[in-house]
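Re: that backbone. Tokens:
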């Protein structure tokens, strides 16, 4: 699996609304592209910042071709929606991870 990781620091004034929008609209839209198998959102703990909180949103894709298709066909529109909605209230960076092994107890 390839993990498309988006780390976002969101302004504390819009954090609750942003989290609701992510869960209700943005993440479902990402999954509806058909490029990703699943997604999870995580909040960074142990780091109190009055300017905002940091989240990691991870989308798992089966192949690099799925990532390439997402980036070519869907990323510009979905990223623009996020930027237009939260302009100047977030900082984000994206990374790709190669999932070597997933462990279950």
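Recovered sequence:
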């Amino acid at each position: 699996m390839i993990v498309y990781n988006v780390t976002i620091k969101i302004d504390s004034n819009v954090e609750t609304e942003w989290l609701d929008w992510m869960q209700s609209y943005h993440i479902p839209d990402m999954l509806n592209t058909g490029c990703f198998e699943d997604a999870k959102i995580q909040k960074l703990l142990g780091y109190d910042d009055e300017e905002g909180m940091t989240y990691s949103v991870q989308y798992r894709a089966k192949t690099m071709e799925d990532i390439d298709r997402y980036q070519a066909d869907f990323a510009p529109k979905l990223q623009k929606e996020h930027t237009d909605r939260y302009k100047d209230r977030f900082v984000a960076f994206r990374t790709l991870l190669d999932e070597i092994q997933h462990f279950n107890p």
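Residues 15-31 form the longest helix (17 residues). The chain has one domain: 2-98.
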